[in-house]
UniProtKB/TrEMBL annotation:
Gene3D superfamilies per UniProt: hypothetical protein PF0899 domain, Major capsid protein gp5
UniProt-recorded name of the protein: Phage major capsid protein
Pfam families: Phage_capsid
Organism: Sulfitobacter profundi
Source species taxonomy: Bacteria, Pseudomonadati, Pseudomonadota, Alphaproteobacteria, Rhodobacterales
Subcellular location: Virion
Phage capsid-like C-terminal domain boundaries: 1-275
Region entry Disordered, spans: 40-64
Length: 280
């Protein structure tokens, strides 16, 4: 005789994913259209003036001082969700605004996909992720762990010019962060010190970012990167779009789907380095 009652809100499961599509993390460029955007660059860090000039000498004209420019490009890659069919009964009878809830979930799906691609995308018909693009900063000795020396050597594999950037830091997934936090010295004391969003190990202190798209420690894995993430460019094209369809395809029900367009590229190859574990 007692009617069923339902809690007046839907409890939504949560899972962290990562920062790569967020505003203010990498360098974000917004464009209304999808034409190719070139990013020119130059690496003259090895340049010197090798000749001591005597009185009346003229500079050498043999091409030895020529500057080589590079170019990365930002393209237009589109990712979309499948249609979700929502019945008229659910739309009109749910305690939640179902259209709003599903729109939020689809937005998170698209953001999660963007973070995946901007982290570990291969660059073959898709964005090249920051982890994929990073050069090897340190080869780990083990395929199952990280040492304090390796952490410090990874950070120092990035030139000091980048380490002064406000966007310099290390990035890893939560399992790798846990492995670092469990490291102890010979007396059994934990080595890692945490100071807000920074970690300190030995002489090295760096901002840490958790990105769940990154690989766990393992064979051939790139379990950690260090560098200036401001040198990674994220292009967002036209914004994320969530659309509904109440036309003949779904009527009297409703369909809802979404899409987003983006790309990413590491503009400066010296800016970000990876810790790479051996294959065996």
């Amino acid at each position: 005789m007692v009617p069923d009652e339902m809690h007046r809100a839907i409890v939504k499961a949560m899972a962290a994913w990562g920062p790569m599509f967020a505003e203010g993390f990498a360098t974000v460029i917004h464009t209304p259209g999808g034409g190719t955007i070139p990013i020119p660059g130059v690496d003259d860090t090895a340049g010197r003036a090798p000749k001591q000039a005597a009185e009346g000498d003229t500079p050498a004209n043999d091409g030895s001082g020529d500057v080589v420019f590079t170019r990365k490009t930002l393209e237009d890659f589109m990712y979309s969700t499948p249609w979700i069919k929502v019945s008229l009964q659910l739309l009109t009878g749910s305690v939640e605004n179902m259209e709003s809830l599903l729109g939020e979930l689809l937005g998170e799906r698209l953001g999660r996909t963007a973070n995946d691609k901007l982290t570990v995308g291969t660059g073959a018909g898709e964005p090249v992720g920051i982890v994929t693009a990073a050069g090897v900063g340190k080869m780990a000795a083990s395929l199952s762990g990280i040492t304090t020396d390796e952490f410090q050597e990874l950070v120092h594999s990035v030139d000091p010019a980048y380490r002064t950037s406000p966007k310099f830091g290390v990035m890893m997934n939560d399992n790798t962060s846990l492995a670092l936090s469990k490291l102890k010295d010979t007396t059994g004391r934990y080595i890692l010190n945490e100071e807000g969003d920074r970690i300190k190990m030995g002489r090295v202190s760096a901002k840490v970012t958790i990105n769940q798209a990154m690989a766990d420690i393992g064979a051939s894995a790139r379990s950690m990167v260090a560098g200036d993430v401001g040198k990674y460019f994220v292009r967002k094209i036209g914004g994320t779009v969530i659309g509904t369809d109440r036309g003949a395809t779904f009527w009297p029900n409703m369909g809802i789907a979404g899409y987003t367009r983006f790309d990413g590229a590491l503009a400066d190859d010296r800016a970000v380095k990876a810790l790479v574990h051996p294959a065996v």
